[in-house]
Amino acid sequence: MPADDKQIPSVWARPRPDRRQPLLTRESIVAEAVRLLDEEGLDNLSMRRLGSRLGAGATSLYRHVASKDELLELALDAVYGELPLPDTGEWRTTVTEVARAMRATILRHPWLAAKLGDAGLAYLGPNMLRQSEFVLGVMEDAGFPLAEADQAVTTVMAYVVGISTGEAAWLSTVARSGLSEQELTEKLWPAAEQAVQNYPRLRARYAQQRGDDTSGANQDTFEYGLQRVLDGLQARLP
Question: How many CA atoms does the CB half-sphere of 201 hold within 13 Å?
Answer without folding.
Answer: 0
